[in-house]
Amino acid sequence: xxxxxxxxxxxxxxxxEFKCIVNRYSSVAVDIGTGDGQFIYKRAKQNTDxxxxxxxxxxxxxxxxxxxxxxxxxxxxxxxxxFVVSGVExxxxxxxxIADKITINLPWGSLRDGIVKGDExxxxxxxxxxxxxxxxxxCVTYSTNHEKQEIETRKLPTLSIDFIRTQLKQQYRACGIxxxxxxxxxxxxxxxxxxxxxxxxxxxxxxxxxxxKCVVMD
Length: 218
Known about the structure:
This protein is of the alpha/beta class. It is 36% helix and 29% strand. It contains nine helices and nine strands.
């Protein structure tokens, strides 16, 4: 069963019900670790023929945006969006092979750790919900200048383009995901994510944001 957040309530949806919704749309975009959901909400409003699915383990983060989607269109309501309550480690089987595009923006906690450490469970779950050739976009940031204690406590690797293009690329490829390239964004480029957290970081101290352009292999 897929746990869908609708306003303040969780509704469990079986495979047939979920598939029925998915099949109404030309493509499906999934945002893992969606947080407050603003990133996909704004894109869903712009692309009404696509289904957008936000995934997060925190109900509190998604509640406000989920409530907004149920209102009248004049007050921000839209139909082509779902909020799934789940961690990346246990994505529901009902989501197998549905995603045409996947985004992971500024992950934190266990999601971030799995992404930068090339954790097999995390990567296999991402692949599980992907179609062949699914586009996967990841941006992540932390550094000893800002998160020294977090890095030491969580034993995070030092981020660099070389690390991504060598060690991390091998780990991803072993799980069926190819990192086509990696770039460094600056604070100004971060603003295009158009989320509260992204804006907070963008207008804060200068930092490097690592962007990975990936594709799920056949």
